[in-house]
Amino acid sequence: MDLLFGVSLIPSPPTSSGDPVRDAQHAEELGFDLVSVWDHPFVDTPSLETWTLLTWVAARTSRIGLLTNVLALPHRPPILLAKMAETLDRMSGGRLILGLGSGSAARDFGALGLPGGTPGERIAALEEAVRLIRTAWTEPEVDFRGEHLSTSGARLEPKPARPIPIWLGVYGNRALGVAGRVADGWLPSLAYVGEIKPKMDRIRRAAEEAGRDPAGITFAFNVGVRIGGEPSDDPTKVKGSAEQVAERLAGFAREGFSVLNLWVAGDRAEQRELLAREVIPAVRELVG
């Protein structure tokens, strides 16, 4: 298995005690495969806008992958998002993974003056958006008429230099079907996913029904980790010694996840170093 490891950046404004760009550089130096940033512009603490921050991260790093984890679709027009993604992927040398979700934070919708819609409507719009974005990346001109999205005469040039991966952070049965039909990857979080195997099976079945090869879908997992102290029964994170954390992460890999994106708690620089030096090599050895 080609197992990849990422680390989440906290999009807080730079201070003397923390800077997400320095954190990304540190992750790259330690050998992590990717960094990710969430998309919640209106939280209770000061925060930076996701796309702008990732652009700055791309400019200050050279190798590490860039994952939006995940962009709430209603926040940006899909055809413009297609253009944004092409530009960042090109300027970063092909490092972008476009993580998308249907959006669920009513507070964000209200603050941005956006209609929230029902969960079902947002999922339907997400599927249309993926199809629209891919059309814009491949066709000379886009005329798209969906139930929720439409565009006329859109021309996106230049086209992407490579197929930009689109991963979906979704959970419900209908949304998992969308992931199987149109996405390149599935990106759930440990805190919310519940039973894993039935959801993976649902995605694979949907892919087969759509005439796609399920083996081409990447299964990525957001996992909160804390190295040190006693193991915890907290279902939202993995905690314990380096050996205990490595065993749990190896278990996720055995279940079929080929990308583990880690949300570290505590001293983030110290935790990243422990992960890179003690945990990740142990996971790779356990998985073989």
Q: How large is the count of helical segments?
A: 10
Order of helices and strands: EHEHEEHEHHEEEHEHHEEHEH
CATH architecture: Alpha-Beta Barrel
Give the overall shape, derived from the CA principal axes: globular
N-to-C terminal Cα separation, in Å? 8 Å
Helix coverage percent: 40-55%
Strand order of the largest sheet: 1-2-3-5-8-9-10-12
Q: CATH fold name, please?
A: TIM Barrel
Average the pLDDT over all residues and give the rounded result.
94
Largest sheet: 8 strands, parallel, barrel
Secondary structure: number of strands:
12
Q: Report the radius of gyration as a whole number of Å.
A: 19 Å
Q: Into how many domains do the coordinates divide?
A: 1
CATH class: Alpha Beta
Which structural class matches the secondary elements? alpha/beta
Beta-strand residue fraction: 15-25%
Q: List unreliable stretches of 5+ residues.
A: none
Topology:
Blueprint: E1 4-8, H1 20-30, E2 34-37, H2 50-60, E3 65-68, E4 71-72, H3 78-91, E5 96-101, H4 106-112, H5 119-138, E6 142-145, E7 150-154, E8 166-168, H6 173-182, E9 185-186, H7 190-193, H8 197-209, E10 218-227, E11 237-240, H9 242-255, E12 259-264, H10 268-287
Parallel strand pairs: 1-2, 1-12, 2-3, 3-5, 4-5, 5-8, 8-9, 9-10, 10-11, 10-12
Antiparallel strand pairs: 6-7
Description:
- The chain is α/β, with parallel strands linked by helices.
- The chain contains ten helices and twelve strands.
- An eight-stranded parallel β-barrel has the order 1-2-3-5-8-9-10-12, surrounded by seven helices. A two-stranded antiparallel ribbon has the order 6-7.
- Helix 1 runs parallel beside helix 10.
- The N and C termini lie close together (8 Å).
